[in-house]
Amino acid sequence: MPVTPLVTTQWLRDNLERSDLVILDASFHLAATQRDPREEFRQVHIPGAQFFDIEYIADPTTDLPHMLPTDNDFIEKVSALGVGNDKTIVVYDACGIFSAPRAWWMLRIFGLENVHVLDGGLPKWQAEGHPVTDKITKPARGTLTGALDRSKVYDLDVVQEVVNGAPGLILDARGRGRFTAEDPEPREGMRSGHMPGAKSVPLCDLLIDGCYRPLHELKTIFTEAGVTPQTRAVCTCGSGVTAAGVALALTLTGHDDHAVYDGSWSEWGSRSDTPIATGAD
């Protein structure tokens, strides 16, 4: 059984027939791409995979995108995918590493321990000639218990405290152009820039060929951003998706004191009472 948050394509191929294995396709695409992840799943996915819909497994009572659901809602929707506390869960996405860490993070903070991300995702799996299918299977409902670990989720109030001088370092996973405000936000009406004091750590900089960079390279990137073993890290992005990719990278390096700001820039940038900085710093 893997002890790292990542599994390789070869490990998954070798263990594809395990009875305790649950595979989840957590693909998600920004609206500008005009891609439908559920339709793509219907056309091609890893055999036995279920579609983990980040937009559906979310809080329906807020206008903010794909915020965390309640405990009961999470258990109801996720157990229907065959997920249980006794299962080995592997999550992947259609981009390599993009949205799969969001599902990994959600599963972990709701109490599941044996959860892993497929490094390189579906692109690497297909490039290596491993099997795919369009056959959709219906799993038996999993036996799932758990509750949200709120220490791994930050809200607006906590992030405001960090901006105002409380201990913490904000790591922004968005592209550098969005961080500096040179590029517009993809969501209409959103202000551009970043939270004062934040450091730019784009998820794409943590990857190479759709996989996470080697451990020593990840450590160097975080060290250059100001992360130390004692740092309380706040992971943020546009809407809480790629922030989870930064959280996963921190976990790989052995850094434990970090959490995801679930509202991220969708919340911060849409308000008129939150401070914004522009430029590289």
Automatic annotation (TrEMBL):
It is found in: Cytoplasm. It catalyses: 2-oxo-3-sulfanylpropanoate + [thioredoxin]-dithiol = [thioredoxin]-disulfide + hydrogen sulfide + pyruvate + H(+). One of its GO terms (molecular function) is thiosulfate-cyanide sulfurtransferase activity. It comes from Pseudovibrio exalbescens. SMART domains: RHOD (SM00450). InterPro entries: Rhodanese-like_dom (IPR001763), Rhodanese-like_dom_sf (IPR036873), Thiosulphate_STrfase_CS (IPR001307), TST/MPST-like (IPR045078). Keywords: Cytoplasm, Repeat, Transferase. The lineage of its organism: Bacteria, Pseudomonadati, Pseudomonadota, Alphaproteobacteria, Hyphomicrobiales. It is an enzyme of class 2 (transferase). One of its GO terms (cellular component) is cytoplasm. Pfam families: Rhodanese. PANTHER family: SULFURTRANSFERASE, THIOSULFATE SULFERTANSFERASE. Its main location: cytoplasm. Gene3D superfamilies: Rhodanese-like domain. Its EC number is 2.8.1.2. It comes from the Bacteria. Residues 17-134, 164-277 form the Rhodanese domain. This is 3-mercaptopyruvate sulfurtransferase.
